[in-house]
Amino acid sequence: MKTLLIFLLAVATNVTYAASTPDFINTCLDCHGPKGVSGHSEVPIIAGASAYFIEASLFAYKDDIRPGVKSKFYYGDLKRQKTDMKAIVEKLSDQQITEAANYFAKQTFISAKQPFDNKLVKLGKKVHSIRCEKCHGDGGTSVDDDSGILAGQWTPYLKLSMKHFKEGTREMDKKMKKKVDKLKDSQWQALLAYYASQQ
Ligand code: HEC
Ligand code: HEC
Predict the structure, then answer these.
(1) How far is CA 156 from CA 66, 78, 97, in A?
(2) What is the distance of C-alpha 164 from the center of its chain?
(3) Which of 52, 61, 143, 185 is the one with CA 20 to 30 A from 107?
(4) HSE-CB for 44 with a 13 A CA cutoff
């Protein structure tokens, strides 16, 4: 019993320490929102994605296989100049990249509250299950697939990421490309409604 008590105390203390995040992670929160749950539709929610996906994304910016889009800061000192993910990642050590990925992976994903076209949801669900489910499991909520969480992600951000994939500025998985190339715009609109509907 005594050992259990000491153990519990140790856990409690740890929780208190974990609450003070290092400065380089606080900078992320100034755009991605409290614990990575972004309240702004241009900035993706990164809480709860897999550590592998987050880390791979950060290295993709560093290695120039993914474009960094200039963004303003949404919290904290708002007078800071706009910056982009590449510039941010370049200032981090590999160890800090891993640490940031682990921090955000431990947080809870909370779906964006946003409007969507209810009439398109059913078609979106069908298109998803035929074309996307294989790598974006459980209706796009899967963390274990290491391919990002689509369900509940901000629609404007998903649009931006598809634009980058299509124009080739963001490297796309070859098998995903095959599915995406076949998508009609109406099917893409339906997918967006389906993802946004999962709140
Ligand atoms: C100035 C605002 C800003 C700051 C600071 C910032 N980000 Fe971002 N981040 C963005 C925006 C905007 C995007 C989406 C556009 C893009 O890809 O450039 C993004 C994209 C990402 C993505 C890709 C998510 C996905 O679903 O593909 C990850 C991961 C990420 N950021 C992690 C971080 C981490 C970790 C930090 C801190 C070290 C950080 N960001 C700091 C604005 C910011
Ligand atoms: C063969 C596997 C595969 C298939 C099929 C697939 N994807 Fe992906 N997708 C991935 C992987 C892996 C990633 C993460 C890679 C990266 O970040 O560049 C990804 C990333 C994404 C992203 C970016 C998420 C983010 O947070 O940045 C979107 C959007 C996306 N996929 C949409 C789709 C849609 C829509 C379909 C169906 C039409 C689809 N994918 C089918 C493997 C797949």
Answers:
(1) 17, 22, 26
(2) 15
(3) 61
(4) 20
Q: pLDDT digits over 122-157, tens only?
A: 999 999 999 999 999 999 999 999 999 999 999 999
Tokens at 110, concatenated: 């909370």
If you take atom 26 of ligand 2, which residue's CA is the nearest one?
148
Task: State the amino acid at position 68 in one-letter form.
Answer: G
- Cα–Cα distance measured from residue 90 to residue 142, given in angstroms and rounded to the nearest whole number: 29
| Choice between 91 and 12, residue whose per-residue pLDDT is larger | 91
Separation of alpha carbons 23 and 190, rounded Å? 40
- AA identity, residue 129: S
Residue ranges lining ligand 2, Cβ < 6 Å: 44, 57, 131-132, 134-136, 147-148, 150, 158, 161-162, 173, 175-176, 179-180, 183, 191
The C-alpha atoms of residue 142 and residue 62 are separated, in whole angstroms, by 26
Taking the mean position of all CA atoms in its chain, how far away is CA 38?
9
> What's the full length of the chain, in residues?
199
Contact 198, 111 (CB under 8 A): yes
Band (11; pLDDT cuts 50, 70, 90): low
Task: Please give the Cα distance from 52 to 23 (Å, whole number).
Answer: 22
